[in-house]
Amino acid sequence: MATIEEQIKSLEDEISKTKYNKATQGHIGKLKAKIAALRQKKEKAQAHSRSSGGAKGFEVKKSGDASVALVGFPSVGKSSLISQLTEVESEAGNFEFTTLTCIPGVMEHRGANIQILDLPGLIKGASEGKGRGREILNVIRGSDMVLYVIDPFQKSHFKVLDDELWKSGMRLNQTPPQVFITRTRRGGIEVRSTVEQTNLRDEEIQSIVRSFGIVSATVTLRTDVTDDHIVDTLAGNRVYSRSVVVVNKIDLATHEDMENAHRMLPGGWPILNVSAKTGAGIDEMKDFIFDNLGFMSIFLKPQGQEADLIEPLIVKDTSTVRDVCVKLHRDFLRKFRYARVKGPSAKFDWQRVGLDHLLKDQDLLTIILRKS
Ligand SMILES: Nc1nc2c(ncn2[C@@H]2O[C@H](COP(=O)(O)OP(=O)(O)OP(=O)(O)O)[C@@H](O)[C@H]2O)c(=O)[nH]1
Ligand SMILES: [Mg+2]
Question: Is there a contact between 86 and 107 (Cβ–Cβ < 8 Å)?
Fold first, then answer.
C-alpha cells in the first residue's frame, strides 16, 4: 500500500495535471479536501511518535508584546539583520546553515518590546520535515508576524518559501473565511448562504465536506467562498498571521536586480529594501515592523486618580480587557470585578464592561478589582 506521503503526492500530481474550469472545479475541490485530510492523519501520527521520544522542537520562550519570525532561505542575512535590530549577536557566516536553532532577541521600539526570532534557513520540502523544517515551521506558526527576508539574486525564493508556509497551514495577510460547519445527526449536508455563491455550487461544497468523512452537517456561508476556504475550515488548524517582506543586500544589487526581485513579490504586501551590511533602511525597518504588527495605545486611569495621558500602554490592536489585565499584573485576572471604558470602544463615557470587551486605540480604561 502507498504511504500517506505517496498518496498526497499522487493527488497533488492529479491537481497539477487537471485544467481548472467550471467542469473540473468540483473534482479539484474534492482532491484538495482529500489531501488536507491525509495531512491531518499524518500530523496525528507524527505527533504520536514525537510524544514517544521523537525529535524535540526548538525551545523558545515567548516574551514581549509581540513576536516576529525571520523567514528566509539560508544565507539571505537573517542573523545579520537580528544583530542590527536587537542586542543579540547571532552568528553570521559565509556558508549555508550557519544558524542551527531558534535565537530570540528583543527590539525595543516606540514603547513596545518586540521579540525577534532568528531561525535556520528554510528550504523546499520544509513542510514535509526537510532541514528541521517542522521545528522551524512550528516557531513560525506561533509568532505574530512572518517577516520574509529575500535575497535579490535568487528569484524563485519567495514563491518556494510561501508555498512551504501555505502547506503547513499558514494563511498570510488573509482574513479567516466566514464558513461555519456544524455536524448534525441526520439530514445529509445542508448548505445555507447569506450571499450569492459564484465560485462553487452546493453539490461541490457537499462533496468537499463528504471527502472529510462527514455525512451530515449544516454549512453556513457568510461570504463568497472558494474550495480552499471550505477545506481550511474543515482542517481547522489554520493560522491567519500578518506578513511583510524585506529585501536584503541592496548594497550588492543593481537597479535591474531590484526590479526583478520586486516583480516576484505579491502585490499589496508591505515591502522594504535594506542592507544589514551598511545599515541602510534599518531604522525604517524598526518602524516598518512596529507599524505592521498592529499596535494600539490604551490610557490607564486608576480608580479615583487622574488618567496617565502621557505614557500609554502599548498592546496588540486585537486586545480585550482580559489581555490588558494579564499584561499589567498576574493578580489582576483573579481580582477582577469589572472595568470602565471611555473612548472609541465605549457606547457612552465610562461604560461598564467585562473581560471580553474589545478595546480600541486611544481608549481610557479603569479596572476595578476586589480588595483581596
Ligand atoms: N553585502 C552584504 N552581505 C550581507 C548582507 N547581509 C548579510 N550578508 C552576508 O551574507 C552572509 C550570510 O549572512 P547570515 O546573516 O549568516 O545569513 P542567514 O540568513 O542568517 O544564514 P543561515 O543562518 O545560514 O540561514 C554573511 O557572509 C553576511 O556577512 C548585506 O546586506 N550585504
Ligand atoms: Mg543565520
Answer: yes
72 CA closest ligand 1 atom index: 19
Model pLDDT for residues 4-40, shown as the tens digit of each residue: 888 988 999 998 888 888 888 888 888 998 888 888 8
Query: Ligand nearest 132 Cα, by number?
Result: 1
Whether 162 and 267 share a structural domain: yes
| Domain-located, residue 61 | no
pTM of the full predicted structure? 0.84
Q: What digits encode the pLDDT tens for the residues 55-91?
A: 567 778 888 889 999 999 999 999 999 999 998 887 7
Kindly state whether residue 307 falls inside one of the protein's structural domains: yes
Ligand 1 in reach of 302 Cβ (< 6 A) = no
pLDDT of residue 341: 97
Domain that holds residue 94: 66-173+240-293
Do 288 and 301 have their domain in common? no
Cell of 124: 523546499
CA of 248 to the centre of ligand 2 (A): 13
Residue 240 to residue 238: CA distance in whole angstroms: 7
Same domain, 42 and 164: no
Which ligand 1 atom is nearest residue 73's CA?
25
Report the alpha-carbon distance of residue 237 to residue 169 in Å, rounded. Answer: 7
> What is the number of alpha carbons within 13 Å of residue 223 lying toward its C-beta?
10
Q: How many folded domains does the chain comprise?
A: 3
- Distance in Å, CA 285 to ligand 2 centroid: 18
Q: Are residues 118 and 152 in the same domain?
A: yes
